[in-house]
Amino acid sequence: MTVVVDIAELIKTSRTLLRDSEQRVADVILKDQSFAISATTTELSRRANVSATSVTRFCRALGFSGLREFKICLAQNLAVNTHFMANAVRRNDSFSELAHSITDALSAALQEINSELPIDAFSQALDILADARHVCVFPVDQVSQGIALDAQIRLLRLGFQASIHPSEEEQRMVVAAARDRTALLIIAADAATPEFADLLDLLADDKRPSVVIAPQSAHARRVASVLLSFRAPAHSEIFSQTALRYKQAIVVDLLCTGHALNLSDRADERRRPVTPNPAPPMKGQRMSGAE
């Protein structure tokens, strides 16, 4: 099958070689590529006001065997544009264009993780937090260290004894010396590194309660008590690390906020209504009803 880097550019550069009826097909496709991906030959010819034969000739003029092959390539091209080409930044772009590009990339990452989150696994992760007295946070790589530090601070504010342990040697010592009711919160940006594999092997031997926040991993799913996974952005994307950090941060936010709202089945209370606390009396001021 013909592989096209940019369908829109191919159509534009081939336009002068197309017949008038084929140019009308090109205009319809360029105006609404999403429609063209799902349209039948009849639907496409009707919108372009041409015959079905003109649609077939248009596809063949661009080097495709027919509409089906053209639509497959168009769908692949549209996916690439959404995740990479639309977010590409050149050195001569203005800063405002850079800002729009990075926010577009993050919007795409947020939409992706909304459908990726293993919602059912969060209840078990919240149960582990509810049972824990101390949470040890393990960032597996440099990319994850900022999110790991944020997680530790959030846990401290929730009343946990929480500590962060970034080095591999320190992590091994902590696992070996950890007391009862100590849980591990492991955060990784790449599920394929040797460091991540070694840490998972350590968990397999220790059997300590653990919550792993990382891209999808069969090894982590077998070993960790709970795996809160997401799809890692492709390394070819210019903002892949930024999108990855935001995905990790969302999982940490959900975990900490879920605990703060007592959503764990093992917490003493379930969800509590949030009401304003009365202000403490001023010094020297009598309490209401006091004599």
Q: Can you characterise this structure?
A:
There is one protein chain. The protein is of the alpha/beta class. It folds into two domains: 7-83, Orthogonal Bundle (Arc Repressor Mutant, subunit A), CATH 1.10.10; 117-260, Glucose-6-phosphate isomerase like protein, domain 1 (Rossmann fold, 3-Layer(aba) Sandwich), CATH 3.40.50. Helices cover 55% and strands 9% of the residues. It has 13 helices and five strands. The protein has helices at residues 7-14, 20-31, 33-38, 41-48, 52-61, 67-83, 95-116, 119-131, 145-157, 168-177, 194-206, 218-223, 240-260; strands spanning 134-139, 161-164, 182-187, 210-215, 226-230. It has a five-stranded parallel β-sheet with strand order 2-1-3-4-5, covered by helices on one side. Helix 12 (218-223) links the parallel strand 4 and strand 5. Helix 2 (20-31) crosses helix 5 (52-61).
What's this model, at a glance?
With 291 residues, the protein is of the alpha/beta class. The chain folds into two domains: 7-83, Winged helix-like DNA-binding domain superfamily/Winged helix DNA-binding domain (Arc Repressor Mutant, subunit A), CATH 1.10.10.10; 117-260, Rossmann fold.
